[in-house]
Amino acid sequence: MENAQAKKLRxxxxxxxxxxxxxxxxxxxxxxxxxxxxxxxxxxxxxxxxGEATIPTMxxxxxxxxxxxxxxxxxxxxxxKLGIQFDNWGKKGDTxxxxxxxxxxxxxxxxxxxxxxxxxxxxLNAPFGDYSPELQAARAGxxxxxxxxxxxxxxxxxxxxxxxxxxxMSEQHGARRIEGKIQHVMLEPNNGFxxxxxxESGEKVEGDLFIDCTGFRALLIGKTLxxxxxxxxxxxxxDSAVAAQTELAGEISxxxxxxxxxxxxxWRIPLQHRMGNGLVYSSQYISDDEATALFLRELGETPINTxxxxxxxxxxxxxxxxxxxxxxxxxSGFIEPLESTSIHLIxxxxxxxxxxxxxxGINQHDIDEFNRQSLIDINDVRDFVALHYKxxxxxxxDFWRYCKNMEVPESLSRRIEIYRDSARIFWxxxxxxxxxxxxxxxxxxxxxxxxxxxVADLMSSEELQRYLxxxxxxxxxxxxxxxxxxxxxxxxxx
Length: 494
Description:
Elements: H1 2-6, E1 9-14, H2 17-31, E2 35-41, H3 57-65, H4 69-76, E3 79-81, E4 83-87, E5 95-99, H5 112-121, H6 133-140, E6 154-156, H7 159-172, E7 176-179, E8 182-187, E9 194-199, E10 204-206, E11 209-212, H8 219-224, E12 229-231, E13 240-246, E14 256-261, E15 264-270, E16 275-281, H9 288-298, E17 308-311, E18 315-317, E19 321-322, E20 325-327, E21 333-334, H10 342-355, H11 364-390, H12 398-405, H13 410-422, H14 435-444, H15 461-480, H16 485-492
Helix pairs in contact: 2-7, 2-10, 6-15, 10-11
């Protein structure tokens, strides 16, 4: 037994929070026979802890981990999320919902938007969202776990409670937690690999593989290994946020809200016991004091904690894996939480690491492949989030005029032009955001295609009308049969 234990890969996780405890829990539970997990964190160092909204991929991660959904929601005061409502993004006064799941049905030659566009041409003026069960359920404030149709959903959660929940799971599966601040990172003199974390207490925590979950500080991957950072401030000009929780008032909506202002946007995330709130803004266009004052005026409910300012630099680490150190979470890069992608990028990296876990030693081929896949992941998120800023008709402030006219990656500008010309959306199965997501945001923000695929003309006008009206009616009947979101929570996980 001692020899088997000695052969285990020693994994040291630097930092707790969501990233640290997600990593520790997954490795301990799923690879505990092959790795030993030590997590170092200090209660004196706070975590960002405001990432309270997720996307449906979190359910896949939980399934892999064997997490009981109702228990998880009880432990984190969680609620269900069917999408995000965007207010004032395309134009002031506009509202649309980016819902999960699928809108309509597609055929081999053409996605659903082509049939919908032909319907518009023939006077069938129902909005695109009328064909989405998730969107209609979100608007009606309803939710249930269903099979036909099966609603696609994610969660709102208390991020700090989630970290505590995962810590308990990690320790049950053998992970060890050490309380302490990292004073120094010791490197191997011959190859520059990390040898140990030296704590203020004098303790040295040695390991074979180190996971940097130290947030924006990036103590290991950045300050020690000097792995470079690509700055995306030219695309994402918001560099600050002010966040606070408030008392819960009114119904618990099954969606996140994102409300655009002249200098950024505000989020509202309903939990069972409180509302999560934040204002993301550009310090070029509004000061911290002005932003905080406006934030407090706009809240609408009583704050239960003091608002705090968070500063960030949008961008990505040039290598997420360098030598024997892997960056997870904020240390690997940051894109503002407009589409709730932060926890997804963590879980995606964890699964990628588990597939390439260096049990028999660090392999450069694995490092290169890990970094290649990580780059694809974050570039996809970058383009989709940037779409919300680029595809706007707002010109009422310097902030929005900059966004509307800014240069964006060629991969994004090409997608926009193809869609505007032909309503076509090309995407690979490996991408996070599907054609449905691109459709909803482009249409929601005013990009109307000039034409559609001719396959939509194969139906007669009568067939098309029966198909579209029948689909809408089916969704309306389905939504009417659902309980309210609040009632479902009471019976399922209150």
